[in-house]
Specification:
This is Phospholipid/glycerol acyltransferase domain-containing protein. GO terms for molecular function: acyltransferase activity. It holds the Pfam family Acyltransferase. The chain is α/β, with parallel strands linked by helices and about 375 residues long. It has a single domain (about 80-360), classed as Glycerol-3-phosphate (1)-acyltransferase (3-Layer(aba) Sandwich). It is built from 16 helices and 9 strands. It has helices at about 10-15, 15-35, 45-65, 70-85, 90-110, 110-115, 125-145, 170-185, 200-210, 215-225, 235-240, 255-265, 275-280, 285-295, 325-345, 350-355, and strands at about 145-150, 160-165, 190, 210, 230, 265-275, 280, 305, 310-315. α5 (about 90-110) crosses α9.
């Protein structure tokens, strides 16, 4: 038999495939060394290059004993797009904190601003709201081609209760609030979950943009004062556990109906097309996340996305105050109105690919 040229101990320490890769890496480094050496004239430069080449060769030879470098590089390239989809929602959070930072800076310069705008009924935060609205509206237009359809259904003045479907991230409500503030010079008050008050810096943003948890009495008072108010009956539960089928997850919540009846304000149903294609919740272990959410009452399900799909907000016809309806009956009537908007304007199940195409190809509206 032909004798082996390697000892048993050495062959066990360095598996043959990894050893071969290490040799190949050394050959590549040697080739690069010779190519670089041909362009150098100084002996010191050649000595430095030689030391670097030997060091790199030794490093790859050592690492190659324990790690499959080719597989690691392949795995890194494969998982990079997945990691990016989980990091993109951080851009939304970053934009919120940029907004909060701007409001704090604006607040620090309050004396200077008040000296310039020293008119009688000047609202100190009006300028800040306008600048914030410009930034958010520009972000929506550039990143999602944001549009609002049915704006004529909003009253020019007087109260209106806007009931909307809650996406994984309610970014459409930020865009919508900014657009209405710029077009109508009216600020939409918003009901937000209580956990938001625990987010650092949130309280200033909530005070400026009129976001609060709200009770039936406080919400009715906002409407009686002639303001517009937005509520998502599904709340965080709908945000976390809704999917691309766009089913309403209201769980018999009738608080908004009691607000409408007490304030006698009209209800405007609202839905944003492709909302679930922009940001989605992870579909795995849904039951486990539901149990965890019910225990902590805090968003626990991971969110991914940030896809630049087309966002188009649709406003339905106003539902006028009807004293003959009970809160439960009014809730069913509003849910039916939003489901009509979904069935008319949304592709079910939602598709990220088609949502991207909607930015370039106008979609035909389904007949009633």
């Amino acid at each position: 038999m032909r004798p082996k040229h390697t000892t048993k101990a050495h062959s066990e320490r360095i598996p043959y495939p990894n050893k071969l890769r290490a040799v190949q890496q050394q050959k590549i480094l040697l080739t690069r060394y010779l190519a670089a050496a041909s362009t150098m004239s100084s002996a010191d430069d050649l000595l430095t290059l030689s030391n670097e080449t030997v060091g790199n060769s030794t490093f790859f030879a050592y690492i190659g004993q324990y790690i499959d470098l080719d597989y690691s590089i392949w795995l890194y390239r494969l998982l990079t797009p997945v990691l990016v989809t989980f990091l993109l929602p951080c851009a939304f959070v970053l934009l919120i904190y940029c907004t909060i930072s701007f409001l704090y800076i604006y607040k620090l310069h309050s004396r200077f601003i008040l000296q310039i705008y020293n008119e009688g009924d000047f609202d100190f935060w009006d300028v800040a709201r306008t600048l914030v609205a410009v930034v958010w509206d520009a972000h929506g237009w550039i990143f999602h081609g944001y549009e609002v359809c049915g704006m004529e259904n909003l009253p020019e003045s007087g109260p209106a209760l806007i009931i909307y479907y809650h996406g994984a991230i309610p970014i459409d409500m930020y865009y919508f609030t900014a657009r209405i503030y710029l077009k109508r010079q009216r600020l939409i008050y918003t009901v937000g979950d209580r956990f938001l008050n625990k987010v650092p810096g949130w309280k200033l943003l909530a005070r400026v943009m009129k976001i609060s948890p709200g009770t039936v009495q406080s919400c009715a008072s906002v409407l009686r004062n002639g303001n517009m108010l937005s509520i998502a009956p599904g709340g965080v539960y709908e945000a976390q556990f809704g999917d691309s089928n766009y089913e309403l997850l209201w769980r018999r919540r009738v608080g908004f109906a009691k607000v409408a009846i007490e304030s006698k304000a009209p209800i405007i149903p609202m839905f944003t097309e492709n909302l679930r294609e922009g940001f989605r919740s992870v579909g795995l272990a849904k039951r486990l996340f539901i149990r965890l959410y019910n225990a902590v009452r805090f968003p626990v399900r991971p969110i991914y996305g940030g896809f630049p799909v087309k966002f188009r907000t649709h406003l339905g016809a106003p539902i006028p105050y009807d004293p003959s309806l009970t809160p439960e009956e009014l809730q069913e009537k509003v849910a039916f109105a939003i489901e009509e908007l979904i069935n008319k304007h949304q592709r079910i199940p939602g598709s990220i690919f088609h949502g991207l195409l909607d930015r370039f190809i106008s979609k035909k509206i389904k007949p009633n």
